[in-house]
Amino acid sequence: MTMDTEMIKYVKNDKFAEFIGLELVSAEPGHAVVRMAVGPHHLNGVGFVQGGAIFTLADYAFAAASNAKGTVTLGINANISYFRTPKGKVLTAEAKEVSSTNRLCSYNVDIYDEDNSLIARLTATGYMKKP
Q1: Fewer CB within 10 Å of terminal CB in the chain, N or C?
Q2: What is the C-alpha separation between 42 and 35, in angstroms, rounded?
Q3: Cα(28)–Cα(8) distance, rounded to whole angstroms?
Q4: Contact 51, 82 (CB under 8 A)
Q5: Which residues form the signal peptide (predicted)?
Q6: Residues 131, 82: contact at Cβ < 8 Å?
C-alpha cells in the first residue's frame, strides 16, 4: 500500500504541530515517525517536558500514520502512560498500526528520548470516515 500524499498534505498543514515544533520524519500507511526538539516552551513548572507536549507529539504521529492510508481518520479515544522523565533535547514518536477494520483502527505510539529509552506509550483508536 502506498502513502496517500493528499492526506499527508493535510497532516503537514497542522498549525498547532507547526507551532510547537513537530517534524514529520516519515509517514506511510500504518506507520509514522515524528520528532520534537525540546525547547523552554515545552517545559512544565518543575523543568520537565510537559505531559501535554508529549501527548501532542504522539497524537500527531498517530494522525500521520492513520491518514497516510488515504481515508480521513479521526481519533475517538486515546490513552497515554508515562514511564520516565525524558533525557536530552529531542523526543521521537513512532506510530504503528495494531489493527484495522472497515471503520476503526488501533495504534500504539511509542515515545523515545535521545538515549532511546521508552518514556511513554499512547494507545489510540481512530474512526475512518466514509469517502
Answers
A1: C
A2: 13
A3: 9
A4: yes
A5: none
A6: no
The pTM score is 0.92
Using CA atoms, how far apart are residues 51 and 96, in angstroms rounded to an integer? 21
Cβ(103)–Cβ(63) under 8 Å?
Answer: no
Overall size of the chain counted in residues: 131
Strand partners for 92: 35, 112
Average pLDDT, the chain: 93
- Cα distances (Å, whole numbers) of residue 3 to 54, 64, 65, 81, 86: 25, 10, 9, 29, 31
pLDDT at 1: 45
Phi, psi (degrees; rounded to nearest 5) at 90: -135, 130
Choose among 120, 60, 110: nearest CA to 86. 120
Q: How far apart are the C-alpha atoms of 109 and 123, rounded to whole Å?
A: 6
Strand partners, 24: 34
Domains of the chain: 5-128 (3.10.129.10)
Q: Are the C-beta atoms of 22 and 37 separated by less than 8 Å? A: no
